[in-house]
Amino acid sequence: MSRFFGAKRLNRIYKFGILGVAGVLAMTIGVKAIEAGRVATEEPIAGINTSLDKLVVAEAQTGAAGSIASSYLQTAQAVTDAAISYDEQVSDVVTDQVNDELAEAPDEHVKLNLNYDRLGIAKVDTYLNVRKKPSESSKVVGKLTKHAGCHIYKIKKGWAKIVSGKVKGYVKASYLVTDEKAEKMAMKVGTKMATVLSEGLRVRALPSTDSAIYDVLGQDEDFEIYRENLSKEWLDKFISKHIKKKQLKGLDYDAMCSDLSNWICVSIDDGYAFVAKEFVEISFKLNRAVKIGDIATDGSDGVSSTRASIVEYAKQFLGNRYVYGGTSLTGGIDCSGFTMRIYQHFGYSIPRDSRSQASALGSVSGKDVRPGDLFFYSNGSRINHVAMYIGSGMIIHASNPRTGIKISNAYYRSPVKIARVVRD
User: Fold this and answer.
1) What letter would DSSP give residue 55?
2) What's the pTM?
3) Start-end ranges of CATH 2.30.30.40 in the chain?
């Protein structure tokens, strides 16, 4: 019996802990609603719709970094026309050296509090297929990525019946770490995350409501916390590495520094943004499975065989490494290198970087989005990320060094443009 838990094994709740001064970060079920009186200047933007029938229309706001148009889709081409050279993107990217200098050292004592009746953690290099039935020929209903957690209902004849996030199904039990070993492993592979509590949450380039909007995030989405306890010294280093002088124009620096205790810094793909603590829930989490199925390459799903083949090919690389500037699907790649290489495999040539890709390709509406289309995202002043739509409201993209190539909700952040390569 693990020393972390009580004596009853049946239907117990595993709780992982290291005693210390950091306190308890609880894993909650469900999301707290934000009271209207708390919204203030960071009130979620009205009219945000995360369905595929309507793309996000963000509130117009200008900041020191420049104007953000009121309708992302209608003005996306104007953003891409102002594209700068690929080499300049390095200023926006978190290199290993910058991570070493700026990243907050983990708390010496963190108490992880994850509630499972029986915990399982995927011990795979990339991902584990979750199937509808306990058979390798059964339909794939989801992907359990490396170190993702699940609740195990039972294990029978080599198959584990599990639930993880919104995904229920069966996985090969031999690829799971279970019980006490999983409990100990969870403390090493879990991550402190900020969960967005409301739809259309604006995050900022700096920890101030006077700073430019960096992006608009979707409700219930998780973002890794890059720095929880902000200090003036850390912020000064951050500004020197990532912020241009014009972005500081009009900001009350002293007032911003005096309010740092109310803000955190989160990682959004390979960039950073700041969010007020009251609009997120902080917890220590394991990754969860993503709900996704296969697309028939014979066109029987209503998707052209070319598009289906492109999507299925892209999903083969789920879990592989992210490397800024990389172009290898197996050895390391970044977001635009990923989309370029996938299309190149099928004989399509698109530019190397995300802004050039967006500039070169024509827009399509959210109502007409199809698997294989590209979603582009902005850091508030220019396009800085691209992903491939794979159907069912999901995208696949090379996100950052920690997560590598992953599957996400297409509206985890607000797309500024949808573009089409395959015309059929």
Assistant:
1) -
2) 0.75
3) 115-190
Asked if 274 and 209 touch (Cβ cutoff 8 Å), the reply is: no
Contact at 8 Å (CB) between 238 and 265?
yes
Exposed/middle/buried for residue 167 (C-beta within 10 Å: 0-12, 13-18, 19+): buried
Are 250 and 210 in contact by the 8 Å Cβ rule? The answer is yes
| Composition of the chain by helix, strand, coil, percent to 5 | 25, 30, 45
List the beta bridge partners of residue 405.
Answer: 398
Comparing C-alpha atoms, which of 268, 193, 266, 218 is closest to residue 28? 193
Q: What is the pLDDT of residue 113?
A: 42
User: Which phi and psi angles does 153 have, rounded to 5°?
Assistant: -75, -50
297-419 folds as endopeptidase fold (from Nostoc punctiforme) (3.90.1720)
- Give the model confidence (pLDDT) of 150-194 as tens digits: 999 999 999 999 999 999 999 999 999 999 999 999 999 999 999
Rounded Cα distance between 310 and 168, Å, is: 26
pLDDT tens digit string along 114-162?
556 799 999 999 999 999 999 999 999 999 999 999 999 999 999 999 9
Q: How far is CA 147 from the centre of its chain?
A: 16
Q: What 3-state DSSP class applies to 66?
A: strand
Sign of CA dihedral 210, 211, 217, 221: negative
- Between CA 266 and CA 223 the distance in angstroms is 6
- Kindly indicate whether the domain formed by 115-190 is annotated with CATH number 2.30.30.40: yes
Residue ranges, comma separated, of all CATH 3.90.1720.10 domains in the chain are 297-419
DSSP string, 323-388: -TT-EETTTEE-HHHHHHHHHHHTT----SSHHHHHHHS-B--GGG--TT-EEEEESSSSEEEEEE
Report the alpha-carbon distance of residue 35 to residue 197 in Å, rounded: 11
Distance CA 122, CA 311 (A): 24
Helices and strands in the chain, H and E counts: 9, 26
> Angle at Cα 375 formed by Cα 57 and Cα 98, nearest 5°?
100
